[in-house]
UniProtKB/TrEMBL annotation:
Pfam (any one): Fasciclin
GO cellular component, one term: extracellular space
Domain (FAS1) ranges: 41-185
Keyword Disulfide bond on entry: no
PANTHER family reported in the protein's UniProt record: FI19380P1, PERIOSTIN-RELATED
Name of the protein this chain belongs to: Fasciclin
InterPro entries reported for this sequence: Adhesion/Biosynth-related, FAS1_dom_sf, FAS1_domain
Keyword set, alphabetical order: Signal
Top-level lineage group: Bacteria
Lineage: Bacteria, Pseudomonadati, Bacteroidota, Sphingobacteriia, Sphingobacteriales
Signal peptide: 1-24
UniProt keyword Signal present: yes
Length: 188
């Protein structure tokens, strides 16, 4: 009887685990980022906190006081730098930026990665076509970034001439869309 109970319990546990996995995969448009499912039914912040590749970005968003903004209705387009993108910055830059006395500078850099509206790759591609190969995009910070296609990848250029490539596009959120980028964009 004890063995039968253990076997039945194991089968129920497997069934529950399978149903949870199927549900996660069943939500249309769910993508994996940083080892975690990014659900279109969740907001930008609720998804980002689960990505192991975006812990630096999440810490910076918290330090800048932008959590409530990015949990807001939006819609927003976020070019989300990975931890390795932040690692490309000179040593000590991130530690310095998250200090309270540098909140304004950090906010400027982070909002330079955000566009008002939901601009997925199709909309950006249409803007690139309209711009004859290059699109000029205005950030929430008020600066400009330029976008074009290179070797099948979306490339961005900041106001200082730095370039970043989108590694994962069109990660849809309840309040916008995220494009994962490999380099931090810098305003002038």
């Amino acid at each position: 009887m004890k063995k039968l109970f253990s076997t039945a319990f194991a089968l129920v546990a497997i069934a529950l685990a399978t149903n949870t996995t199927v549900f996660a995969q069943a939500e249309k448009g769910t993508k994996m980022v940083g080892g975690a499912a990014m659900y279109p039914s969740k907001d930008i912040v609720d998804n980002a906190v689960n990505s192991k590749d975006h812990t630096t970005l999440v810490a910076a968003v918290k330090a800048a006081g932008l959590v409530e903004t990015l949990k807001g209705k939006g819609p927003f387009t976020v070019f989300a730098p990975t931890n390795s993108a932040f690692d490309k910055l000179p040593a000590g830059t991130v530690d310095n930026l998250v200090k309270p006395e540098n909140k304004a500078t950090l906010t400027k850099i982070l909002t330079y990665h955000v566009l008002a509206g939901k601009m997925d790759s199709k909309i950006i591609a249409a803007a690139i076509k309209k711009g004859k190969g290059k699109a000029e995009l205005t950030t929430v910070e008020g600066g400009k970034i330029w976008a074009w296609m290179q070797g099948g990848k979306l490339v961005l250029q900041d106001e200082k001439g730095g370039k970043s490539t989108v590694s994962i596009a069109d990660v849809y959120q309840k309040n916008g869309v995220i494009h994962v980028v490999d380099t931090v964009l810098m305003p002038k």
